Amino acid sequence: MEASIPLDVYRLLRYNTHVSRGERPTSRRDFLREGLRSLVRAGFGGIFERLEHVSELMEGREPKPLPLQPVLSCETRSLHALISTGQLPLESLPPLLHELDIRGVSLSDRHLPALQPRLLEPLRETLTRNGLVITGLMVATPVDVHDEANLGRRLDECIERLQVAAWLGAPLIRLHLGGSGHEREDDTLYLERAALFLQRLLPEARKRQVRITLENRDGIARRAENLLTLVRSLDPRWLGICLDFGNWQPERLYDSCRLLAPYAMHVHAKSRAFDHRGEETQLEYGRLISYLRLADYKGAISIEYMGEEDPVEGIRKTRDLIRRYWRAY
User: Fold this and answer.
1) In the predicted model, is pLDDT for residue 30 greater than 80?
2) Terminus of the chain with fewer CB atoms < 10 Å: N or C?
3) CATH level 3 topology of 72-325
């Protein structure tokens, strides 16, 4: 069980965003343990050593998150035009992705036929029997934390998505934290409200062994610093980043991706158009992938093609571009 630390106190104690993950405790348990060890080193042994031993025993009984899979994946959103019109049922994904030499699939909840396990069983069986790894469940509807009246309902819906992910064997869900449209409020009042929302959701994630990821996008998630505050002040083992290559403007995209890469648990390799060399016309893929490699990223890289040409061809070109810079995928 996690020790409870008031968010305002923890925020005062957290490190600045430029400190690397390896230089500081990565969770509140680590934070407390390091404090206890400091007291022991200072001569205050006895009770503190016993408390640390209890902490280690508690950690041994804690559930572990489902493992991430370092595979090339495809977002069903890339194929939305085909799926939504019935041209490509989800059960028909395996032969298409096998032909594309892609081993993983990330499912949007808007594409699922239902949310009940009984009705999802045929889909799970088809995908896994054909060797596809389900790399994540994307929650399409934003969590608008400024809409306080509906937060209880959104919490229940997110818990339901965690349960669906666990049933499918997906290691994570993706959330989008919306905003009010007022940057100052998003960076203060609504950032704190988002932290309280996630603090209530995280025990449900641990219970189901499913991680929660936050996508860099708009609203509260428009600034890397806000996302880092949430991840670092809560629990980086269970809460991380869904790093999207194409959601921010180039002038701040690269520095922000470099900051977020060490906390990435899922990656959206977004693409829209390609030049004659096969490079994405708006994004420096080599630079973005280098941040993942430097961060020793171990999760899926999932293609999210959003262009105007044939989606299958767009997915193929994105696949080739990723492998140009990281052959392991």
Assistant:
1) no
2) N
3) TIM Barrel (3.20.20)
